[in-house]
Design a protein that fits this description.
single chain, alpha/beta, Rossmann fold, six-stranded parallel β-sheet, three-stranded antiparallel β-sheet, 6 helices, 19% strand
């Protein structure tokens, strides 16, 4: 995380709030948070996080962006419109901490790659074959040759 001066975090629910709090306390980086609910934002502001007014604000101001959203539908909502795809920069890293469908995750990764950004999702090797979901810590949708050696 040394190359990333500002960490953005979108989604401050049951998992997201404590993860974001840990980044605020231990990363030594500027952390910008966004959520639709005001309560976790207030708690994190008291801990030292900066609060963004929109998804676009977080994307524009962060070098490394974490998403911790409850479903693929929510991830798609922050990707489209005035969100991630419109504002992502070359070299910016987007990490989805949720569980989304493999096809959607690969689609997002391809769109990010086309913009010069990188998409990642943490891998737990947990699979649900009925819903065709996967948690994956590799570079989703990117070939091993395009993956930086440090992340293999």
């Amino acid at each position: 995380m040394s190359d990333h001066n500002t960490v953005g975090f979108i989604g401050l629910g049951v998992m997201g709030e404590p993860i974001c709090r840990n980044l605020v306390k231990k990363s030594g980086k500027r952390v910008m948070a966004f959520d639709l609910a005001p309560e976790p934002l207030a708690r994190l502001r008291a801990e030292g996080a900066e609060i963004a007014g929109s998804v676009a604000d977080v994307v524009k101001q962060s070098d490394l962006l974490f998403l911790c959203l409850p479903s693929a539908k929510h991830v798609r909502a922050v990707f489209e419109g005035e969100g991630i795809l419109k504002n992502v920069r070359n070299g910016q890293v987007v990490v989805d901490l949720g569980t989304s469908s493999v096809s959607q995750t690969r689609d997002f990764a391809k769109q990010l790659q086309a913009k010069g950004s990188h998409g990642r999702t943490p891998r737990s090797r947990a699979r649900d074959r009925r819903r065709k979901t996967v948690r994956s810590a590799s570079w989703s949708g990117l070939s091993p040759r395009s993956t930086p050696r440090s992340s293999r």
